[in-house]
Each structure stands twice: as structure tokens, then as C-alpha cells.
Write a structure and sequence with these properties.
33 strands, Toprim_C_rpt, 6-stranded antiparallel barrel, alpha+beta, Topoisomerase I, domain 2, 34% helix, 26 helices, 4-stranded parallel sheet, Rossmann fold, zinc ion binding, topoisomerase, Topoisomerase I, domain 3
């Protein structure tokens, strides 16, 4: 008897095959086996939302292997991941196998492994079920919605807002959150306030600090002391007052542990404590879930990592309680197990929280089997999981009320302190707040107080009066944005990391010191959508749509009805934009983005009047490469300024209303000038079309540019000297990929722009030699660099997969296919699954074994064949999407 089991990942396939034994053949689908082609007409609203699926070449081969195995099998078990996407993959596989006519009445069952351990796998195989049709319907609805929004809204952006790359159902709402926060910061007006406190001494000589909370019989609210004059009067009262303790109250307080991790809370904690991005967190968690070699046995260390459930299985709770008693002692074990429910909007709680598969497998015991990031994330998950079942922390919170009396003028002061009487769960895990996030627990900020008794007199030591100013709300980090999206019910656990990655890839946001900064391009897109597609970027609308998708998965709504309702209104909105003129768009954007487009001027003049001609009105202009600010008197006045998110006022002041003369080139005699164009400030030598120009490097400010810097920049590339071996010139310059050295057609990177102007011959020769040594003795012309890392054979076509270092950075190589690694990726940390996905995207095939193969890879498939979900003939939908443009761009 032979049974076929289909999983998503080849890593899981190998492990599960060991668990199941010789009666089973486990094959991997490598994520999705088919997808909607990234082109117009893949979803046909006029054909009752018929969806045309495409199977790429790599997936065709895998499906052939699966079909051949099923032909000679007795049963088929579909064991893809335990979420909506996993259910969809099983449905796709079964649908293709039925089309190949290989099932022939054989039993087909769906099984889900919440953890890749022998017990979890065997238990799941013993309790199979049918494919969850409502869950598949929810996937189809989500996929169709995302497609319809992306491939109909994005072309509107391309036509009406040049430079904008895409819009998406969840992506655009997440971007709006970031942009709205930036607008809040721009509109914020700081207010002055003062705090007063007294350093007091007890009769026993112990000092402590008490805050002023009342004066003249009135309770002082936060920031109620508005200026220095008020603060001075109160300080004078306190300086001459006598102090006596009115009351001392010690109250026991219990702090309870947080529940185990969900996808969202894991991403937030990994960001706060470990500095991981959301995508990095999911990459590491995927490996911990799929399995790690522990002493010769591959075993999954954590449960499935895409979940919004907060509960653990009963057997896991029992195991956690045993581990607590064993490792911390019975004092840390509560009388009863703890049970949690989520507060997140629209949470499905279909699966367990993220927890260790075995609480006896402590971080110390697996340390030697994990790399650094894996150990740190596992340590976090283990500690949070064990803490969730531990006893409460017991804290004694003491509040001291103090009366101050100055000749009948009275004031009230308060001192608060906390003492941990029993650490409880804190012994295992403590939360950490995000930068800029306010603590909602006063205990976190209270210090310990000395012995203080009621009615005793206190001696004044010092009165502190400090001025403060209110601060604007902090920008979102990846973690706090995910938290906000979860609170609003926007997106789902499997979408957070991908949504954030899309915003970065589109250059809509950048990350600076872990904070998300919306770029001008992102703010333009958001302002456009808020002006002309208001409903579709509203938080409530998006959350309501998510709720409908959840109701579809619960079998409460028909997915086609939801699509019809959405499409009717959305299509009408798209049609309305056909009459939209660019002037209408610019007028709306000028108002929506006024602080960005028209920053206030230091001299108080009208920021909408051109400073060059004095009569023209400044306005947004749309060029081939995006938006910029220009004068209405063009071409008589050719003033332009780059639209920049990096400080509107600074951008205005650096607008260089007219060229700034810096001096003459001693060789050519031509004048060097500092100018500003739509792409930013630059140096120009001479005039006319033959004038040489050089943009200011990143980090160089126009106000810092002098003659010497201008000459150095305009003179690039800089000759450093001849190489002592080849006799050929070594030069330095600044290119598309940053500062570099050039020698004999080969490049070596420089660390900073300053190095371009200062690096000497000896250092340059050393850097070139180091670059050549990385490429195994030098990269000869036309040669191939040596491998930095061997990843093994390609699972389909054979041949070695390697990571190499090339002219423009590290890349993955397989045969003739070279795929550049994403910026910031550690070449030593790349996995075979990630490499396959990159190779597939480059080669026009989908080879992804990571969670859900990238849409781009699938869309680019060469010679792929489309298969339909129905037998209806293909009809052209009446859609406003621009077909030619859609073929060139990915909508989501």
C-alpha cells in the first residue's frame, strides 16, 4: 500500500517522510502551483468573476511528478500549511489532478500539521478531513479583490500621477496610516508646560522626590502649569513651605502575563527586543517551524507561525506547567491554567498561538544547533510561552500624599513607589515598549521609596522647576504599524510582512532608525487616493471587507455576492476618473499636501508665490519621472524645486532661486554654479547643452557646498594612480550603486563618498586585491567569481546552486541564471528556498519553496499555460485597466 502526501516545502517533505515511513511518498508543491497571470483579463467580472489560472514551467514538472505518483497510489493526503493559503494550495493541486484524470475515485483527504513533530504529524494523519470549501472561497474572494483593485486602480495612477507605481487593497491603506501620521506631525503645534517637584528628607535622613499635584485647593492636571510665570509663583510657595506627611497607602497590585505570541505580537516583540524587520522575523520563524537538525533528527521547534490565535492546546499547557514547576519551582505555578482570548478586531483564532513544540527543549539545550538569529527568536518564543502560564507578579505600590503650607497658602505633593514582592512571570519574560510608545503601567516608571510614616514632618532639600514642550506623535515603526493594522482589522497575519515589503520596494516609504518615513511619492499616491477614491482607503471600509472575507470562510456569505457588491461601486468610481483632468488632480494635491508643497518661509512671505519672478504661482507639476514644484510663468520663469519629504522648509530654502556662483574652473575657465532641479541640487560647469553636471551625493547639503567641494565633485572620476602590477590607471567615482574604484574594467566598492576624494594608491590597490581574492584569485575578464556559499543541487533541473559576489554585489547563480540578492541580505544567510524563489523570478519560472511563491516569479513564467476554473470561453471584461501598462508592471 502506497499513499501520496503533498506538502509545500521540500524541507518538510524530507522530515515528514521519515516520520511516516515506507508506506508513504511525500512530495513538495513548492508553494502555490498556479496563480493569476500579472496581466489584464485574469479575472473576468463580466463572466461571473471567472479566474484564469496559469501554471508555470517549474510547477508543471512538479505536478507531473505528483500526478505520476498518485497514479500508482492508494490514497492522497493534502498536507499543505494550516491556513487559508495552505487550503487554497491543496484545492489547486486537487483541481489540477482531477483535470489530469489521475484521482479515479481514490480517497483524497486534507490533513494539517500545526507543528512538524512526529506526534503532531501522526496525530494529524489519524484525523483527516475534507478540503474546507468556505476557506477556499475566502481565498478566491481575497485573490480576486486584490487583483481587481491592483489591476484597475494602478493604471489610473499611471495615467493621472506619473511616477506612481501601484496601489493595492491593503497596501494603500497601510501607506495612508504612515502618511496620516506624518501629516499629524506637520500640523502639530508644540505647547509649553512646567513640572514642579520637591526633594524631601525624612527624619531618618532618607531623601525622595515628590511631584506637585495640587495648589490653592485645585487639582493640577497634566500640563496645567502653562508658563514660567505660573511656575515661578508655585515654586516660591514651595520654597518657603513646611512639609508634613498627610497619608501613606500601601496597596498590593498584581501584574498578569501576556498571552503567547501571535504573528503580529511576535513581529512586534522581535522588532523591539531583537531589531528584526517583520520579513526577517518570518524567515527565521519559518525555519524554526519547518525543522532544525537536533542531534541527527530534524524536528520542528515551534508551532505554525501565521496565526492570530492566543490559546495553546491543552497538552501544551500541561507541558508548560510541568516545565514551570521543574525549572522555576512550584511557587511560580498558578493553581489553575490560564486561558486567553484575543482583543484584536476580526481575529479568527483558528489555530494555536506560536509556542515551542516541547517546553523541555529550553533555549540552552538547543543553543548549539541554531544560528544566532534562530536562537534569539526561539529564546523569545520559549520565554513568552512559558511566562503565559506562570504566576502573576506581586507588586506593592505605595502612594504618599504630602501637604505643603506656606503662611496659609497650601499645596499638595505626591510620591509613588513600587516594590516587587514576588517576580512571578517576570522571572521568565518582560515586555519592552517601542521607542516613543507611552507606557500604560505606572509601575514601570515608579522607583522605590524609603520608610515614610504618616503625620511626620519632612525637610525640604530642593525645589525643581522644569520647562517642557509637548512633542508630536512618533512615526510608526514596522512593529507599531503592524499593531495598528491589527487593531483596525486591516490585513491578516500572512500579509503584514509582505505589505510592508511592498511599500519599501515601491519607494513609498523608507526606514530611518527603525521609523517609517513616507516619501514624496508615497504621499502623492495617498493624497490622490484620498481625494478621488476616498472610500477605498478608509480604515473602516477595509476592515469591513476583511470581516466579510472571514464570514465567507465561516460559510456565512457567498463569495461571488461579495465580489459583485464590491465591483459595481468600484467600477463606477474607476469610470468617473476617465473625465478627470490633470489640473483637477494637481489642485487637489496642492491642497492636501500644502505643508509639503508650500513649506513656510522664514521671512513670512507667501510660500505659494515664486521667489524668482515674484509674480508666478508655485504648484505641483507632473513630469515623466514624478512630481516636482514649478512656477506658473514657465517658460519665462524656469524655477523648479524637487518635492522632498526630508523637511519642507529646508527644501524650500535650498531651492536655489537662482544659480549660486562658486568660482571658475582653473583649467577651462568656465563658471561653477550650484543649482536646483526637479531631481535635487547639483553642480554645473559652464552653460548650454554641453555643460557638465554632477548631482550632490546623498548626505551632502547645498549650504555646505563651497568651491573646493564643487571642483572635487565636477572633476570625477578621479585618477588615483597606476596599479603597480598592471600599470593601468586606478580611478574613483560615484555611480548608480554608490562610491567605487575602477581598474581594468573591474570595480571595488568604497565605504563612503568621502573615500572617493581621499583614498590613496596603497589603499586602492589593497581594496582591489581584496575584491579579487573574494572572487578566488581575481575575476578575469569574462570569468565567473568563486562561490561564497554552496546550496546544493537544483531540485528540478539539477546543477549546483551557489551564492557569488559580483560587480554589483552578491547574487545567486544556477547555470546561466544570475539573480541579485535583495539589498541588505546576508549572502551567508541565504537558504536554498530563498535562492529558488530568486532564480525562478529571474528565469521566468516559479521555484519558491517559501510561504507562497512570489507573484512576480509566477507572472514572468515563460511559455506557461493558462488553465481555467470553468469551461466557459474567455471573454474580454469591460475594464478600464491599461493592458499594455499592466503587462509591464506588477499591481501588488
Amino acid at each position: 500500500m502506497m499513499n501520496v502526501v503533498v506538502v509545500e516545502s521540500p524541507a518538510k517533505a524530507k522530515t515528514i517522510n521519515k516520520y511516516l515511513g515506507p508506506g508513504y511518498k511525500v512530495l513538495a508543491s513548492f508553494g502555490h502551483v498556479r496563480d493569476l497571470p500579472a496581466k489584464d483579463g485574469s479575472v473576468l467580472p463580466d463572466q461571473d468573476f471567472e479566474m484564469l489560472w496559469e501554471v508555470d514551467g517549474a510547477s508543471q514538472k512538479r505536478m507531473k511528478d505528483i500526478a505520476d505518483a498518485v497514479k500508482s497510489s492508494d490514497a492522497l493526503f493534502l498536507a499543505t500549511d494550516p491556513d487559508r493559503e495552505g487550503e487554497a494550495i491543496s484545492w489547486h493541486v486537487l483541481d489540477l489532478l482531477n483535470k489530469k484524470r489521475v484521482i479515479n475515485g481514490k480517497p483524497v483527504k486534507r490533513v494539517v500539521f500545526n507543528a512538524i513533530t512526529k506526534k503532531a504529524v501522526l496525530d494529524a494523519m489519524a484525523d483527516p478531513r475534507d478540503i474546507d470549501v468556505p476557506l477556499v472561497d475566502a481565498y478566491l474572494a481575497r485573490r480576486a479583490l486584490d487583483y481587481l483593485v491592483g489591476f484597475n486602480l494602478s493604471p489610473v495612477l499611471w495615467r493621472k500621477l506619473p511616477g506612481a507605481r501601484s496601489a493595492g487593497r491593503v497596501q494603500s491603506v497601510a501607506l495612508r496610516l504612515v502618511c496620516d501620521r506624518e501629516s499629524e506631525i506637520e500640523r502639530f503645534i508644540s505647547e509649553e508646560y512646567w513640572n514642579l517637584s520637591a526633594i524631601l528628607k525624612t527624619p531618618r535622613g532618607d531623601e525622595f522626590e515628590a511631584r506637585l499635584v495640587a495648589a490653592d485647593g485645585k487639582r493640577l492636571q497634566a500640563r496645567s502649569i502653562a508658563n514660567g510665570e505660573e511656575a515661578g509663583k508655585l515654586k516660591a510657595l514651595l520654597e518657603g513651605a513646611a512639609y508634613v506627611v498627610d497619608s501613606v497607602e500601601a496597596k498590593p497590585v498584581k501584574r498578569n502575563p501576556a498571552p503567547p505570541f501571535t504573528t503580529s505580537t511576535l513581529q512586534q516583540a522581535a522588532s523591539s527586543k531583537l531589531g528584526f524587520s517583520a520579513s526577517r522575523t518570518m524567515q527565521v520563524a519559518q525555519k524554526l517551524y519547518e525543522g532544525v537538525d537536533i542531534g541527527g533528527e530534524t524536528v520542528g521547534l515551534i508551532t505554525y507561525m501565521r496565526t492570530d490565535g492566543v490559546q495553546m492546546a491543552p497538552e501544551a499547557i500541561d507541558a508548560a506547567r510541568r516545565a514551570i514547576a521543574d525549572q522555576f519551582g512550584n511557587r511560580y505555578l498558578p493553581e489553575k491554567a490560564r486561558f486567553y482570548s484575543t482583543k484584536a478586531k476580526n481575529a479568527q483564532e483558528a489555530h494555536e498561538a506560536i509556542r515551542p513544540t516541547d517546553f523541555d527543549r529550553t533555549p540552552d539545550r538547543v543553543r548549539k544547533f541554531l544560528d544566532g538569529d534562530q536562537l534569539r527568536l526561539y529564546d523569545l518564543i520559549w520565554k513568552r510561552g512559558i511566562a503565559s502560564q506562570m504566576a502573576s507578579a506581586e507588586i506593592e505600590r505605595t502612594t504618599v500624599e504630602i501637604l505643603a503650607d506656606n503662611a496659609g497658602k497650601k499645596a499638595g505633593l505626591r510620591a509613588v513607589g513600587s516594590v516587587i514582592r514576588f517576580d512571578g512571570f517576570i522571572a521568565a519574560y518582560t515586555d519592552q515598549k517601542e521607542d516613543g510608545e507611552q507606557s500604560d503601567d505606572a509601575d514601570d516608571e515608579d522607583g522605590r521609596l524609603p520608610e515614610i510614616n504618616a503625620r511626620e514632618n519632612l525637610a525640604k532639600q530642593k525645589i525643581n522647576s522644569t520647562q517642557h514642550f509637548t512633542e508630536p506623535p512618533p512615526r510608526y515603526s514596522e512593529a507599531s504599524l503592524i499593531k495598528k493594522m491589527e487593531e483596525l482589522g486591516i490585513g491578516r497575519p500572512s500579509t503584514y510582512a509582505a505589505t510592508l515589503a511592498t511599500l519599501r520596494d515601491r519607494d513609498y516609504v523608507t526606514i530611518d532608525k527603525r521609523k517609517l518615513l513616507p516619501q514624496a511619492k508615497g504621499r502623492l499616491v495617498t493624497a490622490f487616493l484620498e481625494s478621488f477614491f476616498t472610500k477605498y482607503v478608509e480604515y473602516d471600509f477595509t476592515a469591513d471587507l476583511e470581516e466579510k472575507l472571514d464570514r465567507i470562510s465561516a460559510g456565512e456569505l457567498n463569495w461571488k455576492d461579495v465580489l459583485r457588491d464590491f465591483w459595481t461601486n468600484f467600477f463606477a468610481q474607476i469610470e468617473d476618473t476617465k473625465e478627470l483632468r490633470v489640473t483637477n488632480v494637481l489642485d487637489a494635491l496642492n491642497e492636501a499636501l500644502a505643508p509639503l508643497v508650500f513649506p513656510k518661509r522664514e521671512d513670512g512671505s507667501d510660500p505659494r508665490i515664486c521667489q524668482v519672478c515674484g509674480t508666478g504661482n508655485l504648484s505641483l507639476k507632473l513630469g515623466k519621472y514624478g512630481a516636482f514644484v514649478g512656477c506658473s510663468n514657465y517658460p519665462e520663469c524656469n524655477y523648479t524645486r524637487q518635492l522632498s519629504s526630508e523637511g519642507g522648509a529646508e527644501a524650500e530654502s535650498n531651492g536655489l532661486n537662482e544659480p549660486k556662483a562658486l568660482g571658475a574652473d582653473p583649467v577651462t575657465g568656465e563658471e561653477l554654479t550650484l543649482r536646483s532641479g526637479r531631481f535635487g541640487p547639483y553642480i554645473q560647469r559652464g552653460d548650454g547643452k554641453d555643460a557638465k553636471r554632477a548631482s550632490l551625493p546623498r548626505g551632502w547639503k547645498p549650504e555646505d557646498i563651497d568651491y573646493e567641494k564643487a571642483m572635487a565633485l565636477i572633476s570625477l572620476p578621479r585618477d588615483i594612480g597606476k596599479h603597480p602590477e598592471s600599470g593601468k590607471m586606478i580611478s574613483s567615482g560615484i555611480g548608480r550603486y554608490g562610491p567605487f574604484l575602477l581598474h581594468d574594467g573591474g570595480y571595488a566598492n568604497l565605504e563612503s563618498v568621502e573615500d572617493v576624494f581621499t583614498v590613496g594608491l596603497n589603499r586602492a590597490v589593497t581594496l582591489i586585491a581584496e575584491k579579487q581574492s573574494k572572487a578566488a584569485g581575481g575575476r578575469a575578464r569574462g570569468g565567473t567569481p568563486a562561490a561564497l556559499k554552496e546550496l546544493g543541487e537544483h531540485p528540478d533541473g539539477g546543477g549546483a546552486i551557489t551564492v557569488r559576489d559580483g560587480k554589483y554585489g552578491p547574487y545567486v547563480n544556477w547555470g546561466k541564471v544570475n539573480a541579485t540578492l535583495p539589498k541588505g541580505t546576508d549572502p551567508q544567510a541565504i537558504t536554498v528556498e530563498e535562492a529558488l524563489a530568486l532564480i525562478a523570478a529571474k528565469a521566468g519560472k516559479s521555484g519558491s519553496t517559501t510561504k507562497k511563491a512570489p507573484a512576480k516569479a509566477k507572472a514572468a513564467a515563460a511559455g506557461a499555460k493558462a488553465t481555467k476554473t470553468t469551461a466557459k470561453p474567455k471573454a474580454t471584461a469591460k475594464k478600464p485597466a491599461a493592458k499594455t501598462a499592466a503587462k509591464k508592471k506588477s499591481a501588488e
